Amino acid sequence: MTMDRAETSARIAALIEPFNKKGIEITDATRFTDDLEFDSLTVMDFVAEIEDGFDIIISMNQQAEIENYGQLVDAVVKLQG
Amino acid sequence: MTDMLSDNETQGATDLFSKFDPLIEMRKGLLSTGVTDPFGLVMEKVISPTVAMCNGRETILLGTYNYMGMTFDPDVIAAGKQALDDFGAGTTGSRVLNGTYAGHKAVEEALCDFYDMKHAMVFSTGYQANLGIISTIAGKGDYIVLDIDSHASIWDGCKMGDAEVVPFKHNDIEAMEKRLRRIPEGAGKLVVLEGVYSMLGDIAPLKEMIAVAKKYGAMVLVDEAHSMGFIGPNGRGVAEDQGCLDDVDFVIGTFSKSVGTVGGFCVSNHPKFEIMRLVCRPYVFTASLPPSVVATAATSVRKLMHAADKRAHLWENSKVLHKGLTDAGFQLGTEEPQSAIIAVIMPDLERGAMMWEALLHEGLYVNLARPPATPANMTLLRCSLCAEHSAEQVQQIIGMFTRAGKTAGILG
């Protein structure tokens, strides 16, 4: 049961909402640390939400490659196989 | 050619140190308030495991991890002096070349006896033990599942290796299980846990966590740096105390806390463990511990096998201090004393540093711990008790905390 990119993006957008404290508009180019101002604790909680939501693992090694929203969506699509 | 050279000359140099500017500014801001630099303390003279001279003042030591007070044990010191005379000041070599002396084998035998395990491997520091074992046993395609509050040496071991690194929320069994369940079938798995987490002094529910790890076919490594010598009927640590030491594949420990000197180790019953001596780079490519250090360590480890009375007194100290500080109105890292570490939570770094200095003026040394070393960005005054702290010293400490707490405006 794989989701397409648009479907995955919609679900991630819903999961990101409680972490988007300033209500910043999310595009593929939105960066987690620079634009959304996620600190390391927020990153941990947010990653756990995504992992649980999609039943996947995003290892630290993979997280290091993900800087913006678009990259996260692509990674989640790929990780779902 | 000359044109190119002159082009190079005009390029502005990038200062590699500019990445440290935020930290430099933060330190400047803190020190400009007039507080003593909490990271620049010098012990001018050390009188005993619990007392030293700092800034010309006699100071009670409550932040040295010297849990069992072995640093001045007469047998330990005598063994070190003898080894200096018999074997010299240093080995000048790697364990696998010219750096294995009789003393290195003797301390490894002492560790096998202490833990009742088949293999022991001694590293030059505890940091290197975690760095070496973790980076070597978990390789490409393997998964390391670890607690998010793990010590820096564990994180650095992960970073040095090629395994996929998957952290979970501190002491959260369900979060750990979810991650283990999601690991692709057939991949190697290593679960890394600590017995005592040194920032808040809380212990891990190892029995439950290790049972889950085993259910998913993972190997288990437990860092017992802050429990050795003290926790468990034989001082083997939290896993022994919870009755699950047999299910731990690798115990990591240190000589720089309860043992009272410096060095690190891994003990294991794995039948192929000895191959580590050839493949573990932080073991191979560094000089071995000096003969005096391994001699003091071996003597200390053997004495710790018979230290039940000291263990009981240390527990008593921990309970009395925990209750005294709670009653005084301080917020502590754990509801009940779980180890020999008691963490006093400070409202922020500025007042934490003020309180630290006020305590130093009272004649008490504790550790000031701050982000990023601390969980949840907390500032902590971390106290580690010693079996050699007398009941009177513990009462003195409570008085010093209460007075300093009022001076620094932490207590009302």
Automatic annotation (TrEMBL), chain B:
InterPro entries: Aminotrans_II_pyridoxalP_BS, Aminotransferase_I/II_large, AON_synthase_class-II, PyrdxlP-dep_Trfase, PyrdxlP-dep_Trfase_major, PyrdxlP-dep_Trfase_small. Coiled coil: none annotated. Gene3D superfamilies: Aspartate Aminotransferase, domain 1, Type I PLP-dependent aspartate aminotransferase-like (Major domain). Its cofactor is pyridoxal 5'-phosphate. Residues 59-398 form the Aminotransferase class I/classII large domain. The keyword Transcription regulation does not apply. One of its GO terms (molecular function) is transaminase activity. It comes from the Bacteria. Keywords: Aminotransferase, Pyridoxal phosphate, Transferase. Belongs to the class-II pyridoxal-phosphate-dependent aminotransferase family. This is Aminotransferase class I/II-fold pyridoxal phosphate-dependent enzyme.
